[in-house]
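Chapter review. Work through the record for L-cysteine desulfhydrase Cds1 before attempting the end-of-chapter questions.
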Amino acid sequence: MRRSPAVSTIQQHITQHAQTGSPRPTLDVDRSDAEYRTWLKEAVRKVQADANRSADTHLLRFPVPEQWGIDLYLKDESTHPTGSLKHRLARSLFLYGLCNGWIRPGRPVIEASSGSTAVSEAYFAKLIGVPFIAVMPRTTSAEKCRLIEFHGGRCHFVDDPRKMYEESAALAVETGGHYMDQFTYAERATDWRGNNNIAESIYRQLRLERYPEPAWIVATAGTGGTSATLARYVHYMQYDTRICVADPENSCFFEGWTTGEPDVTCDSGSRIEGIGRPRMEPSFVPGAIDRMMKVPDAASVAAVRALEHAIGRKAGGSTGTGLWGALKIVAEMVAEGRTGSVVTLLCDPGDRYLDKYYSDAWLTGQGLDITPYVTAIDSLLETGVWPG
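C-alpha cells for L-cysteine desulfhydrase Cds1:
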C-alpha cells in the first residue's frame, strides 16, 4: 500500500512547517472519523492496560565485601513481559505514535533494531493488531529473530547495519506504514519527570537501603534514551547522583561525547547487541551525562560470566558492558575510601546469546580473549584493588 497523493501533500506541508517554523497552512482534511477514533481509543487502552498488569522489576544486589561500605545493584529489566529493558521503550514509543496519529489500523509499524526493541515492538504491534517489520543486521542472534516472529513480526535483514535507517524509511513509504525510529524518538517518548519510569523506580526501591541516593548510576547506550531519562530525572529531582555511560567497541558515543562532535561515525557494527551505534543518535543527550567509559568487548563478556558466577543469572552483553563500568567505579570508590551505592542495569537475559557471549567458539572466532578481564574482576572482588 502506498501513500495517497493527499497524504503525501499533507506530509510535505508538515515537514516544511517543522523545518521553517512558519505557520502551518490551513488544510481542510477531516481525520476525525468515528471508526478510527474508536480504534485509537481501544489501542491506547490496550497498551496502558499492559503497563497496569506489569509489576515493577527487581533490584538485585551484586555481592561485594561488606567492609567496603559499598552496595552494588542491578536493575533487572529482564523480567518484563518481553524480557528486556526495551519493553519500557516500546510501550512509550507505541503510545507516542498512537497519540500523535502516526500509527494507523491495518498499516505496518517498521523499526530499525538490533533485536530487543524489535521483540518488544512486535509484542505491542500484535497487542493492537497491526503488522510489524523489524529491519535488523543479518548478524542478529537467532533467538531474537525467533522471538520477533513468535510475536507475529517479520524480520527484514540488512548486511550493513548503517543501512538500517534508510531501509526502514523506504519500507514505511512503500507500505504506507509508520517508521517508529527509536533512535530519534526514544528520549522524547518517555516521561523523564516520573510516571513510573526506570529512574523513579530505582529511587523508590532504594528508599529503605543504607545508601538510598546512589553515588553513580551506570547505563549503556543504544538509542541513548535510557541514559537521557536517568540523567534528566536526577537533575529534575536535584539529586547528587552522577550518570556514567559505558560504551562498547565499534560505537561512536564515547568519541562524540569526548570530542563534542555530533557527526562522529565508525565503520563497523557493534558486537554487543542492543548497544553501540555507528553514528551519534538523535536520542543521545551528551550534555546530561557526567562521565563516559570505553569498554572492550572482551571485558563485557567477562563481566556477564562473572555475573552468572556471582548470582546465578545469565545476561546479555550490554549488561556486561554496564557491569564492567560499575565495577570500575566501585574500585575507584574503594581506593578513595568512599562509601555509597552504585546501580547498573540487567538489560536482558543471556539465553538470547548462548551462541555468542557464552560460546567459547564464538569468542575464538571473534578474536576475543577474556582471560585478563576475568582476572581483573577476580582481583577486585578478592583484594579490593583494580589491576593496572
